[in-house]
């Protein structure tokens, strides 16, 4: 599968190009809008892969990211344990010094291994934050349960380091760290831009001309009513303050931005067209 061509892109496309292409094609092919469900899934998968730096690098190298590599996967695709782990490979400087100067010095320099875990979140998880328990497999066939708290506002592809809760198999040296790699699933109706959430809402031409109040649901399940002013033009963006993503530093939420799409009637009768013409001509 050519993930670039699925989004209508050429190899070398920028992150901004990928995001823009996904928005356009996802809206066009969403099943709720009469699109093909299989095509929509392909578009969503292509977007998720190309937004993941590791998978994008694999794709650019001609590799298939859906095939898990031996020794640790890149991204869990559903089913089984929802976490993948990456264990260290080549020895670090502490091991080299230890080999050169003896066991006592090596113990002073060494540290338990840093573990990696991949966590898949929904957009709602990003808004609310998420706390979960992860079972970590550590060297020696042991396992342990750790509590992971993902803060609100986290970005797709972001790494979070938790000090001292990684590998602890060697008791006489400091505990290793745990690195959590965050992946956010694409949402069929909403997408993120910085701290804002953007969606589209379709109204008919009469609602746009005369004004109307319409209902809208947010990502986190709130039911809102927004006012469409009379004379609203296609692609007008209305803002719902404070219904976006919490900023990781300030905790202040961005906005929900609603782009208005206007449906023009196609099957008007002759008498209806005549009345519209009369209105236009001021008759």
Characterise the protein shown here.
The chain is an alpha+beta fold. The chain has three domains: 3-60, Orthogonal Bundle (Helix Hairpins), CATH 1.10.287.110; 93-184, Sandwich (HSP40/DNAj peptide-binding domain), CATH 2.60.260.20; 191-281, Sandwich (HSP40/DNAj peptide-binding domain). Helices cover 29% and strands 25% of the residues. It contains nine helices and eleven strands. The strands form four sheets. A four-stranded mixed beta sheet has the order 6-7-11-10. A three-stranded mixed beta sheet has the order 1-5-4. Strands 2-3 form a two-stranded antiparallel sheet. A hairpin with a 5-residue loop joins strand 8 (212-217) and strand 9 (223-228). Helix 2 packs antiparallel against helix 3. The longest helix has 15 residues, at 15-29. The chain is elongated, with a radius of gyration of 26 Å. The N and C termini lie far apart (59 Å). Residues 68-108 have low confidence and may be disordered.
* Unreliable runs: 68-108
Separate helix tally: 9
Characterize the overall form: elongated
The share of residues in helices is 25-40%
Question: Which value, in Å, is the CA radius of gyration?
Answer: 26 Å
Query: What number of domains?
Result: 3
Return the string of H and E elements. Answer: HHHHHHEHEEEEEEHEEEEH
Order of the strands making up the biggest sheet = 6-7-11-10
* Annotation, overall tally of beta strands: 11
Under CATH at level 1, the class of the largest domain stands as Mainly Beta
Gap between N and C termini: 59 Å
- CATH fold annotation of the largest domain: HSP40/DNAj peptide-binding domain
Mean pLDDT: 80
CATH superfamily of the largest domain: Urease metallochaperone UreE, N-terminal domain
Examine the secondary-structure arrangement and name the CATH architecture of the largest domain. Sandwich
- Strand residues, percent: 25-35%
Q: What structural class do you assign from the helix and strand content? A: alpha+beta
